[in-house]
């Protein structure tokens, strides 16, 4: 079954107009508009398994070195592939992995931290506007206890997915959320960085932090303020409940 540039391969009956598929198609325009990406017509193959056993067996046979995960995105020089299986979090899994595929169809060498930050942002249902409460709570508590300070330079130095901790995923999400939603200028900085990465595919050392720092020496404080302002409505709610 093909819809737009998504080609679905399933081992069970899957309706052509399933709302999950409709949501993924809407996501694509949302991602392209938010990040200022030029649409690509490259096909994305989505392999969706009905149950976990068949999914695991398939992954172990084809990619024995892969860690045990619920879903994957893979890019070869010729193909974009997503593997997932039906489970209670399949919608989130597909939004996350298909976001990787959409971004890679335009920018094959997108930096690791940004790739994950963007996927964590867009894995949320559109109504949440990218808000990832688990990441937010994690960052706020690590920051309050003095165990974490934002450091984009460090995130940009990470090269392997295995090097990224849960907190690194959370910080990557926060940078993306901040850049998209803080104001038009920060969103514009992210968009022009992505465009540069798209047209300058060979320059793997192109980094975002020097551009942000040059633009505004107070960027780190603004990021922390952004995090705290996102967290404050939840604090108010918990205080009210306690009363
Ligand atoms: Zn990912």
Question: Could you explain how this protein is built, in words?
Answer:
- With 243 residues, the chain is an alpha/beta fold.
- The chain folds into two domains: 1-106, Glutaredoxin (3-Layer(aba) Sandwich), CATH 3.40.30.160; 108-243, no CATH class.
- The chain is 56% helix and 10% strand.
- It is built from ten helices and five strands.
- The protein has helices at 19-35, 52-62, 90-106, 112-122, 133-144, 152-157, 166-181, 184-199, 209-215, 219-242; strands at residues 2-3, 6-10, 44-49, 71-75, 80-85.
- It has a five-stranded mixed β-sheet.
- It is globular and about 55 Å long.
- Mean pLDDT is 91; it is low at 236-243.
- The chain binds zinc ion.
- Zinc ion binds next to helix 3 and helix 4.
What is the compact description of this entry?
The protein is of the alpha/beta class. The protein has ten helices and five strands. It has a five-stranded mixed sheet.
Morphology call: globular
Helix tally equals 10
- Small ligands present: zinc ion
The ordered string of helix (H) and strand (E) elements is: EEHEHEEHHHHHHHH
Spatial arrangement of strands, main beta sheet: 1-2-3-5-4
Describe the protein's topology:
Blueprint: E1 2-3, E2 6-10, H1 19-35, E3 44-49, H2 52-62, E4 71-75, E5 80-85, H3 90-106, H4 112-122, H5 133-144, H6 152-157, H7 166-181, H8 184-199, H9 209-215, H10 219-242
Helix pairs in contact: 1-3, 3-4, 4-7, 5-7, 5-10, 7-8
The site of zinc ion has 4 residues, from helix 3 and helix 4.
